[in-house]
Amino acid sequence: MKTSRLQSLRRLGVAAGVAGMTACLAVAGTTINSVNWHAYGANVGWLNARGDVSNGAVIGRSYCTGFVWSANCGWISLGNGPTNGWRYSNASANDWGVNHDGLGRLRGLAYGANVGWISFETNGDPRVSLLTGAMDGHAYGANVGWIGLSNAFAFVQTDRLDAGPDADGDGIPDAWELAATGSLTELHGGAADRDGDGRTDTEEYLADTDPLDAGSHLRMVSLTATGSTKRVAWTVELTGFYRLEQSGHITNSAAWADSGLGQLLPGTGPTLTGVVTEAVGPAFFYRVSAVVPLAP
Fold first, then answer.
1. What does the pLDDT look like over 214-255, one tens digit per residue?
2. CA-CA distance, 288 to 135, in Å (whole number)?
């Protein structure tokens, strides 16, 4: 998983500190696990979400592409990429497919030449776990009935969420950049900070905050200490995970270690509090890392 370390907090005060990072885009081919690729429909039997690997399903952070194979249905396409670069409209013959809302929900339309449209919609609630990649719920086709993404015997699992292409090579995936700004010219890699909030455009991507809003960025909001118990609170986005890290020094070369809490889900937002118990002694520093779910 790719992490963005964005802010440090001293035991009894605040100290800003940003660590370097790089963005990594997924490789071509299917994202589906080599063992857990089985979907099932009572009317059509087993479906293979890995396809022939090079043409298998690709589950993305914003949208899906690729194919599912069925011996009884043939190839079923999840879409070939949205015309706006980040989300299918499912409103025209040239712009259909299955979207991912960033919260784990899969919605939209798949299509098979032999079976017609298959709907990923609210009633079946098809979804992917942002923590494990395991899928659940059902899709429905008028000609095939319900297709389950999991059952008592097998399930579909994606190893990662594909970030999609980065046509301008700035380290920020096109889909995220287009959704956030409407173009590929507003944001840049390196030290660029479009909204001047002290967080680079790349860091805004990794934390999934708004790069055009100086008030939207990952930040710590409070630190309280009661004896050996420290409570650290920070802002969260529901599309990400977090790690609370600590160090005895606040320098660029400081050795940061997990606070012992491991990977933290964002909860219901807008803030999350990590509770750490440690011996009373020399000052510790804390920082939060934003973790992109299922990143390569």
1. 999 999 999 998 888 999 999 999 999 999 999 888 877 778
2. 29
Instruction: Name the pTM for this structure.
Output: 0.88
Q: Is residue 165 a part of any domain in this protein?
A: no
Count structural domains, the chain. Answer: 2
Q: Cα(85)–Cα(150) distance, rounded to whole angstroms? A: 30
Distance, in Å, from the CA atom of 167 to the CA atom of 85, rounded to the nearest integer, reads 11
CB 11 within 8 A of CB 21: no
Question: CB-based contacts of 141: which residues, under 8 Å, 6+ apart?
Answer: 112, 115, 116, 117, 118, 119, 147
Give the end of a domain, one of 114, 133, 158: 158
Number of H helices, E strands in the chain: 2, 20
What three-state secondary structure class fits 100? strand
User: Which value, to the nearest 10 degrees, does the dihedral of the CA atoms of residues 170, 176, 179, 184 take?
Assistant: 10
